[in-house]
Structures are given as C-alpha cells and as structure tokens.
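Deliverable D5.2: sample structural annotation.
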Amino acid sequence: MRRIIIGIGAVVAGLLLAGLLFGGIAQVLGKVQHEPPIQATGPCGGAVILGNGGSQCDGPIQPDGSFTRCTSVYVLGFGGWSCYTVYPPR
C-alpha cells in the first residue's frame, strides 16, 4: 500500500513539475509579440493575463474608408496576431 501511495505522489509531483515547466515556456513564448503589428489609432481593447486573453486594434482609416484591423488570441501563452483589411459597406 505504501508503494502505491509513493507512486501516486511521484506521478502527481511529475505532472505538477511538467505543468510548471510548460507554463514557464508558454509565458516566455507568449511574450514574444503582445503588441499589434500596426500603428493603432487608439488604445487596443483587451488584456492578456497569465498567458490567456486577447485584444483588437484598428489602424488609421484610408481615403477609401478601409482600415486594417488586428485581433489576437492567447491561450496558455500560445497565440498571436491576425490582421486583415476592413472595407466600408457598399
């Protein structure tokens, strides 16, 4: 019985250590690009807390009414930005 309890404790400790290691690596990788790749016209909405979250930023409005919008999503420190052009309705 004692061996089983020690074995379970070792497995739990190993899983906790792996989680801490993975979380630390995710935090380091997640800090690579938390800023939008565009020059935003105003503050970006959203937040990244402990490697989770996201935000959205809009770039300057062009003469034709279009603008660049960038959104981000982060889960466990992994994620990034996606930018696309938004055109005015016709």
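Annotation notes: Residues 2-86 form one domain. The CA atoms of residues 6 and 12 lie 10 Å apart.
The annotation will be released with the project's public dataset once the embargo ends.
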